[in-house]
Structure formats: C-alpha cells, structure tokens
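Thread amino acids onto this structure.
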C-alpha cells in the first residue's frame, strides 16, 4: 500500500530551501565588475610624441554615499630625457563616466618616491579619487586623459587611442530617491494657498471693512438727524 505524499511536509521543505537559497543568491549579485583593460596611449611630450600600451585597472570601494576610486597602471607610458629627482613628478588622470551618469572623475597620484633615471619609462603607479553619484543606477568608468606633471610643468599629456573598453562597471544602490514637492499646482498653474492672507489681500479686506463701516455710520447719522414727521 503506497503512502500519500505529505503536502504539508513537502511545502515546509521547499520553503526552507528557498529561505536558504535566497540570501545566498542576493549576496552573490556583484555590486561592481572590474576588468583589466589594455589602453593604448598617445602622448605629447617635451621631447616629441610617444606611444605606449599599459594595462589599466579601476576599482571602487563604498564610503557612505560616495566611492573611493583607485586606478592602477601596470606599465609606464612615457619617459624623460633627464633624470627626475625624488618628489618632482605627480600624475593625474580623468576617468570618463558612462551609463546612468555622465562627466569625468579626476584621480591623482602621489609624488615619485624615488628618482627616475633619464630615458626610463615613468611608472605611474596608483591614482586615487572620489566619486559621488547623483543617483542610483549603473555607471561605467573608462580611462581618459593622463597627465604627467613634472619639473613644474605638464611634461606629458597622454590620450587613449580609439575607444577603450570600460575598466569598471559599478551598480549604485541605496541612495535616497528624489522626493516629490509638497505643493501641487492647481488647475491653471495656481499653487494652493496655505497659511494666512497675503499683505495685499489683507489690506484689501481691511479697506473694504472700513469702507462698509463708513457707509453704515453715514446712514446711521443721516437717519438720526432726519427731522421727525408731523
């Protein structure tokens, strides 16, 4: 004799399985996807045009309602005809935003911690900056113009050739949405009147009251001074 399946027990097992799977599935959804992209730079320098390819990595870390952005170069993109002493070279770069946000974010490096020999590729290292999103959505970050500031001038300005792929795709969530305005327009574009009367309306009302009071007083005096009939 076959036993009928216990529907109540089966439902409980399925519910438990869903409860265990759901948090894991939600936690597995990535908030950011970073990918190392080879970027071909065309650099205008004080010693002529230069070109180089460097793998670029961009990452983001949530800091409240903002993100700490890190851009890393694996190779140098230019060189200098003279030795660069310690602390005289500082790189900076623009990251181009795409997707649900537009514009650029600037990241900046620290001065070189050691002297750079002449005709040696300048190591850019790590650049950092802050991204403050305007709202929730998906935003991409792509390598933009790279500038090497050395010896008091922009010694090299490097632009990506073509259109490099984004190095970072960031999903922004948890920001407060825009709240609708409290005052809604009435038909004809007139806003609802809240609070007391305006100055003009109040003066008009006061003037009308005084006028009516004056007419009433005049009628009362006229009636009072009218001679009695014989």
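Threaded sequence (230 positions):
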């Amino acid at each position: 004799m076959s036993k009928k399946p216990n529907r109540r027990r089966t439902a409980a097992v399925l519910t438990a399985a869903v409860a265990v799977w759901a948090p894991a599935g939600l936690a597995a959804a990535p908030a950011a996807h970073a990918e190392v992209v080879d970027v071909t730079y065309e650099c205008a320098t004080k010693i002529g045009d230069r070109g180089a390819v460097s793998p670029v990595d961009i990452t983001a870390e949530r800091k409240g309602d903002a993100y700490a952005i890190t851009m890393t170069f694996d190779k140098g993109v230019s060189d200098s005809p003279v030795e660069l002493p310690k602390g005289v070279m500082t790189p900076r770069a623009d990251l181009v935003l795409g997707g649900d946000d537009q514009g650029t974010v600037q990241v900046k490096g620290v001065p070189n911690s050691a002297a750079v020999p002449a005709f040696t590729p300048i190591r850019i290292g790590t650049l950092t900056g802050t991204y403050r999103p305007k709202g929730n959505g998906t935003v991409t970050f792509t390598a933009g113009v790279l500038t090497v500031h050395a010896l008091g001038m922009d010694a090299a300005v490097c632009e990506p050739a073509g259109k490099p792929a984004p190095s970072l795709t960031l999903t922004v969530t948890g920001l407060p949405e825009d709240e609708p305005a409290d005052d809604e327009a009435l038909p004809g574009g007139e806003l609802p009147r809240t609070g007391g009367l305006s100055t003009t309306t109040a003066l008009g009302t006061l003037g009308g009251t005084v006028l009516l009071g004056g007419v009433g007083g005049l009628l009362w005096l006229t009636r009072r001074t009218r001679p009695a009939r014989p």
